[in-house]
Design goal:
43% of the residues lie in helices and 15% in strands. It is an alpha+beta fold and 402 residues long. Helix 2 runs antiparallel to helix 3 (98-127), helix 6 crosses helix 10 and helix 9 (332-341) packs across helix 12. The protein is elongated and about 100 Å long.
């Protein structure tokens, strides 16, 4: 079962790589560095030990299948040709042959055992996520990824990663770039030669985290934590996509991993921590409504605009409008609860991971933008209190009509 499952993943990765290559070939003028190539007919060039083993297994299995194909059809076509009726041959009348029965049972069994033996080492290695140098949690959302560096150098860094391809390219108004549909605003950065464990989960529906060059594809399932790993042997930028159909914008969930030298990775970590420190808000600051609205505009642009649009009109029915929304213009606790809790069965994810100031700010912004106007805006202390509400209260308030 394990060998069959892993082989199916390998086959899926092959198919997806070819599909990506075909799509990009029509969109860009050349091969995509770290991604699919124009007229690509093979697996992505491997940059990890596991990917190299998968690459070799691919050709071994293909060779075995080719030999079986030639042998079986060769015998069949020879028999049809050499024993045709026009040469005077008559059909044999024997009923059974014990030797043939044994042969066509034993030979396939031996072939399968040989194939399983060759694959088992790789399958076991793929599942060994122990002794990782760095652990990153990847959470799938419709339709972006959230990353949290949970262990190792860079612990505490977190960010969202969304498609960065301009709308003009997607809608065909301008020429498509070389990284069309496989570029993001925030790349996952890892050090070369270090074992990186990826924990996968999802907020809404099943997604899958896949980088063909790493030989990695792992489902991200709501309510479960799955894991996989890779150790990149070569510095560079490598690209993949969500590999599990997850809704109408499934193709808008690229994954980009930037593999840096250890020294450059350390510099990146230091830069990220400085940026995080600069963005931290003073929890004791007394915010005015105007300050919260101005701060909320930035939060909205980073976390909300992809779904609800810059004009607040959304994309109904999946993403309801915020301009004129009964939820936004109604009691603020309902909106706060929705942001903290999310809403099951919809594309609305939980944004509990945002700071108290960020959540207060984005509520203030949405309640005082476009055609909305309200003085009933929460302070960061109100958000802190709301995060302590029990699950039943959060769920009840979040379920209020929008």
């Amino acid at each position: 079962m394990g060998v069959a499952t892993s082989c199916s993943k390998i086959s899926y990765a092959t198919g997806l790589s070819l599909a990506l290559a075909a799509g990009i070939a029509g969109a860009a003028s050349g091969d995509m560095p770290g991604g699919p190539a124009v007229r690509q007919l093979n697996l992505a060039p491997p940059v990890t030990t596991i990917a190299s083993q998968i690459y070799d297994l691919h050709f071994v299995m293909l060779g075995i299948c080719a030999v079986i194909f030639v042998a079986v059809f060769g015998v069949m076509f020879y028999s049809v040709y050499a024993h045709r009726k026009s040469k005077g041959h008559k059909a044999a009348t024997f009923h059974e042959s014990t030797a043939v029965e044994i042969a066509w049972t034993v030979v396939p069994m031996v072939i399968v055992i040989v194939m399983a033996a060759l694959a088992t080492k790789t399958v076991l290695a793929m599942k060994d996520t122990s002794n990782a140098d760095l652990t990153i949690k990847a959470t799938g959302h419709q339709w972006k990824w959230a990353y949290d560096y949970v262990k190792g150098e860079g612990e505490g860094i977190s960010f969202y990663s969304s498609l960065a391809t301009p709308t003009d390219q997607i809608e065909g108004r301008v020429e498509k770039g070389i990284h069309y549909m496989l570029e993001v605003d925030n790349e996952v950065v890892v050090p070369v030669g270090k074992k990186v464990r990826i924990l996968t989960t999802a907020q809404d529906v099943i997604h899958a985290w896949m980088i063909p060059a790493f030989g990695v594809k792992q489902d991200a399932i709501p309510g479960f934590i799955r894991d996989t790993w890779f150790k990149a042997d070569k510095i560079g930028v490598y690209r993949g996509q969500c590999a599990e159909l997850c809704g109408k914008e499934h193709g808008f969930m690229p994954i980009v991993v930037n593999v840096k030298s250890e020294a450059d990775y350390t510099k990146w970590v230091e830069e990220q921590k400085k940026l995080m420190a600069a963005k931290m808000d003073d929890p004791n600051k007394q915010w005015t409504k105007a300050e919260l609205v101005a701060r909320g505009e930035k939060v909205y642009a980073a976390a909300c605009v992809a779904c609800h649009q810059a004009n607040g009109k959304g994309a109904p029915p999946a993403f309801p409008p915020l301009d004129g929304s009964k939820l936004v213009q109604g009691p603020r606790d309902n909106q706060v609860a929705l942001l903290i809790n999310g809403r099951q069965g919809t594309a609305m994810a939980s944004f509990r991971s945002l700071s108290d100031v960020e959540l207060a700010a984005v509520v203030a912004y949405t309640r005082n933008s476009w055609g909305n106007k309200s003085d009933d805006v929460p302070m960061p202390a109100d958000i802190k209190a709301a995060k302590a509400w029990d699950a039943a209260k959060l769920g009840q308030l979040a379920a209020k009509q929008q």
